[in-house]
Amino acid sequence: MDKIFEGIGSNILVIVAIVCYTIYEICALKKRPSKSERYEELRTLNELHEKGVITQAEFDEKKTDLLSD
Q1: pLDDT tens-place string over residues 21-44
Q2: The whole model's pTM is what?
Q3: Do 21 and 8 touch, CB atoms closer than 8 A?
């Protein structure tokens, strides 16, 4: 009987690990902005750059970050 519980315990541990990893991946996907959100952020950054609120270097850095996703 103990061997049965030991086998179940190790299987449950694997299942819990898989579930935790899956939840982690789903949360990571939700944090990524969509293409339309990135486009809107890029437009906003461009407006800020045109108004002189941010520098060309800041704009270029953020633009690279947005387009690399």
Answers
A1: 778 777 766 677 788 888 999 999
A2: 0.53
A3: no
